[in-house]
Write a structure and sequence with these properties.
The chain has 294 residues and is of the alpha/beta class. 27% of the residues lie in helices and 30% in strands. The N and C termini lie far apart (68 Å).
Length: 294
């Protein structure tokens, strides 16, 4: 049975904390609250560990239609003066929202061997290397070009006997792929606690062993690092990655815009020999070999 919903869209004015207002909306009965940019200023390169917001933030609260709207608005105005925000509301079309969300994700080939399959779909090729994925908890469903680039790279790689690190693991899709493609040992890390949960659950779902570790931990004998993050964090992590990899080890970087390839390549030239970038849409993948000592 489908449910009916309505949205409250709130635009806070100066001096009102969007995160605090999000908590107020949840207290008023919102089933979900989404924060989005209301000033056309995308944040592409936040510092590692930071969670910046926009100068103007729009909050969208999703409420069941049976929720008392007057009571919800009254609770919001009791928490903060009504002149401190603008609010609009509208009905949403009656549909099965869970099914609509699930229908976005279909099995996807990632090369000759590898497939990404949502957990509620039957793999179309049972004999393929099928990654059964729940994309609901953390970023990384294989649909974004940055993830797809690394998955296609892994599909062509020989990982047998290798120790692989997935740095910035998100849903764990790359770590699971490495394990199912024959890596001897797979480790994963992320600064987001939700990513640890998602990676653990997806590893269990795929019957593979993945070791989770703190981002600043020292790991020895790494043959391959996979890092799908963003250009500036990748640049900042170059020394750390060089320390993790054995001489002659390989690194695969994604999350890099085409305009950022030169800067990332230059940052990695000290310890690595970079191959030509592989492009998909406006995104690039860079692979590189750890230089041997002179």
């Amino acid at each position: 049975m489908s449910l009916t919903w309505y949205e409250l869209i709130i635009k806070p004015r100066i001096g009102l904390d969007p995160e605090w207002l999000s908590d107020c909306m949840s207290l008023a009965g919102a089933c979900a609250v989404t924060l989005s940019d209301d000033a056309d200023e995308p944040i592409l390169e936040p510092p590692i560990g930071s969670m910046p917001l926009w100068s103007k933030t729009r909050l969208t609260g999703l409420f069941l239609s049976e929720t008392d709207r007057d009571a919800a608005l009254l609770l919001l105005t009791q928490q903060c003066p009504p002149q401190s925000f603008d609010v609009t509301q509208h009905e949403l079309a009656d549909q099965d929202w869970v099914r609509a969300w699930m229908d976005q994700f279909k099995p996807m080939p990632m090369g000759d061997r590898l497939w990404i399959c949502p957990s509620w779909e039957i793999p179309p090729k049972p004999d393929a290397v099928n990654i059964i994925l729940d994309p609901g908890l953390a970023f990384g469903s294989g649909t974004h070009p940055t993830t797809s680039l690394i998955c296609h790279w892994l599909d062509q790689a020989d990982l047998r006997g290798k120790t692989v690190v997935d740095f910035g693991c998100g849903s764990g899709i790359l770590a699971v792929a490495a394990a199912k493609l024959g890596a001897k040992r797979v480790l994963a890390t992320d600064i987001d606690p939700q990513a640890w949960i998602a990676t653990s659950e997806n590893a269990e779902r795929n019957h593979v062993q993945i070791e989770l570790f703190e981002p600043d931990a020292v790991i020895e004998g790494v043959d391959l690092i996979l890092a799908n993050i963003l250009a500036q964090p990748l640049i900042d992590l170059e020394e750390h990655f060089a320390d993790l990899l054995r001489d002659g080890g390989e690194i695969v970087l994604s999350g890099i815009l085409q305009s950022q390839v030169a800067a990332v390549s230059q940052a990695y030239a000290k310890h690595f020999v970079c191959a030509s970038p592989i492009m998909k849409e406006n995104w690039a993948l860079l692979s590189a070999i750890r230089r041997l000592p002179f």
